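Hi there,

I know you've been waiting on this one. I reran it after we fixed the sequence typo, so this is the corrected version. Both the input and the resulting structure follow.
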Amino acid sequence: MQFSSIHHFVCRLVSVAIISTGFVQISGAGVIGTQQMIDSEARQKQLSRVESFLLRQDVADQLIDFGVAPEMVMARIQHMTSAELAALEGKIGEQVAGGDALAIIGTVFLVLLILELVGVTDIFKSI
């Protein structure tokens, strides 16, 4: 009797296994090329740098002053192409915090030279 119940269990298990092989899930995965992976990672890095710039409080305040909601800008950045993100990131990278350093140094030197010529200071007396 014991043999019969084990035999029925094994037969049912094998029947279910055989029937289930017809319902195999098909995967639509494909091979990702190296260049595609590199482009994807570069886009993610560009996107994170632009987003971190836009999350700064001073940038958000300036956007609000222009009448643009920061959330809307973040949503639009997600839909930019990689080339557009690279151009935007390049523009952000070109901006200098204090302006053009050479112009500032030249202006300071010019002011000091005028003050020296007028006689207000004696900065260049050792020269």
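Quick highlight: The chain has six helices and no strands.

Best,
R. S.
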